[in-house]
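Chapter summary example.
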Amino acid sequence: MNISNLLARGARKYPKNIAVISMGKETSYESLENLVNRVANRLIDTGIQKGDKIGIYMPNVLEFVVMYFAIQRVGAVVVPINAKFVRKEIEYVLEHSDAKAIFAHELLFSQAADIKFDGLKVKTGEATREWFSLEEFIDESSADEIRCQLKEDDDSTLLYTSGTTGNPKGVLLTNRNVLAVSHMIAIEMEVKPESRLLIMMPLTHSAPLNLFLVTAFLVGATAVCTPTFTPDLLIDTVEKYKTTHFFGAPVAYLLTAGSPRIAAADLSSMKWWVYGGAPLSKGEVLHVQKQFQTDRLVCVYGLTEAGPSGAILHAEDHPERAGSIGKRAPFGTEIRIINETGEDVLPGEIGEIILYGEGNMKEYYKNPEETSKIFHHGWVRSGDLARVDEAGYMYIVDRKKDVIISGGVNIYPKEIEDVILGHEAIFEVAVIGVPHAEWGETVKAVFVAKEPVLIDDLKSMLEKELASFKIPRLFEQVEELPRNASGKILKQRLRGVMDESTRE
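The structure predicted for these 504 residues follows.
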């Protein structure tokens, strides 16, 4: 089996079923298959061959789905390009990936219009200068069926990581990798042909793409796509289309939980609310559950380099274990927490999470040095530090690279962040290490609050919960924290650009 044949199979089994709902338009499985064959035939006519890389610079729209399957239908490799990337970043991905073509959408075209790229350029809407029209691209082509010949070990997708530091790395995934994690979600989240998966997080990220879009086509379900996210749009889309599954970054849940409309919203069609990509504290989990009036909240932890896959905390565990990532890996994956010598840690000890399964990537594209660093005897190193309790539940302590070393002592920012979020006015915080002449690093807290916060009051609260060496020496209240497109806070940017602080 290969990914493009999931659609072909769905078109045979469920021709009239709705495959995609996008921008108010419903597209059936047989209609989508027709579009994909047309694009695939035209790609062949332009000289695209097996293994060629093709960029998709689009939000979550029907055209993205068409291109995703059409590119793979001819044996080429999909290169999703972050919808928030600007010209320079787009050019980097196209150059690094050795792309032969790029397909862009009008909603984003202003950033791509003048890119320096010698390959094929196609956009939705009218043709312009060296850009062809996708509509004409499709209309002029044959709808003859193309049978995808890819094997499971053939390349599928080249996903570029968020790039919180330096240039993003290209994670190369095979058909086997993607199929493994889509089967995992179908099993764990009970996805069936009648399911409607709401996809609002960018399809240029591994979880929305591999866990939700591909899984919808694995079982013959419906993908409900929106080109952006807002709390109102989430509520409106669930109510209108009666969606059943949603994956969102924690910030999406927190923003929606704060909407004045949430109390009256009809979200009863939803079977599972899935979150991941960044941690939610126990207090935040309980707040979201209350506001969404649900006990169907599921935490997934994973890495793009693992498909993604990693760990799962199911709904029934949330009342007692909210804040944990669970006590087991999901279907098809194994998880360990190891110390510096590669041995499993004991309860209470801190180690690095490593993962094993068929979702594990093939390689970092054109980066053998980083590829060798991330693999540990076939297991993928996460870079995440965690501990396990006596009952076997795992808790993320911090990113390995974010650990603060002050006076030779390891300080874990997440522990401090969780306590600071207990302040009634503070709703976002990032704790970082900043250079210190004597101690190497000192602790700084950058936070967002509903109102001005008195630092002395905040410190008094922390003194009741934390050892003195963990309490930040520097504080800064800001309007917002910088985040990447997947919702992760850019701590590197905080370290680099914020230097005006409130001192003791």
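To summarize the output: The first strand starts at residue 18 and ends at 22.
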